[in-house]
Design brief:
The chain has helices at residues 12-40, 51-59, 65-71, 80-91, 96-110, 128-134, 143-168, 175-199, 205-232; strands at residues 61-64, 137-138. The protein is mainly α. It has a two-stranded antiparallel sheet. The longest helix has 29 residues, at 12-40. The protein is elongated. The N and C termini lie close together (10 Å).
């Protein structure tokens, strides 16, 4: 029977290398999930992450970008009374006089510490002109941004699942399970990223975004846990182990 490289062929140093690769990816993946929650959850004005949040993030909404931020990721930064004043200002036409009298002091007290123009990736809220631009209806993610984010995720996620897949291939699970869990994250990537684009024109694909992300998370978790267990806690494997595990 043809034999393949498995964890019992590895030295402790090689196992340590694989372990720290998996741990680092796990930490990074956790931060990625946290980022998605912080930027998407609550955009519809309700707690939690929903398909409507996905639609708003990618397709846009009748609400402005400023309103969406106050409903979602910035909801804990400003009290409800101040948020209500900003909403009324937007609804009344977002005039400069009322901005200087009412809105600017709120932003200076709660927002401009971060939104001061020092970071080009964060909206600048120090001037009326900049805030006025954020008070118009949201159009969602631009095509340029989608191209950039898709490019980054395709390369980054391929890199991650290439390494986790190689490490997972050293485990002793049955061959059909191994092939499914190695293939599934890549199918999930296509579903997830492809649906970002389609959601801009068809709202139901927001559900596919969530499904793709869930399958990706399941694949990563399964590969991580099985690999760690088989690397360090699996019993000695006999040389004549059945080929169904290879």
């Amino acid at each position: 029977m043809k034999q393949y490289l498995r964890f019992h062929n590895f030295s402790p140093s090689q196992k340590l290398l694989c372990t720290f690769i998996l741990l680092t990816f796990a930490i990074g993946y956790s931060f990625g999930m946290t980022l998605i929650w912080e930027t998407h959850a609550g955009l519809d004005g309700k707690s939690g992450l929903s398909p409507k949040d996905i639609v708003i993030a990618y397709r846009g909404d009748v609400a402005s970008r400023l309103e969406l931020a106050l409903r979602g990721p910035m909801s804990d930064r400003i009290d409800k009374d101040s948020s209500a004043k900003i909403y009324r200002w937007i609804e009344s036409g977002a005039e400069e006089k009322s901005f200087n009298e009412t809105i600017k002091p709120i932003l200076e007290s709660n927002c401009v510490f971060c939104h001061n123009g020092s970071n080009p990736h964060i909206p600048n809220l120090t001037t009326y002109e900049n805030v006025k631009k954020l008070s118009v209806s949201s159009t969602g993610v631009t095509i340029g941004t989608l191209v950039r984010v898709s490019h980054i995720h395709l390369f980054g996620l391929t890199f991650i699942f290439a390494f986790t897949g190689i490490i997972f291939s050293l485990t002793y699970v049955k061959i059909w399970i191994k092939r499914v869990l190695i293939t599934l994250p890549f199918i999930s990537i296509y579903l997830d990223i492809g649906s970002w684009w389609i959601t801009k024109v068809s709202e139901p694909f927001a559900y596919v975004v969530i499904i793709g992300g869930a399958l990706m998370g399941f694949s990563f978790t399964a590969q991580f846990l099985i690999s760690m267990r088989h690397m360090w806690f699996y019993k000695s494997i006999k040389d004549d182990i059945s080929s169904e595990y290879f």
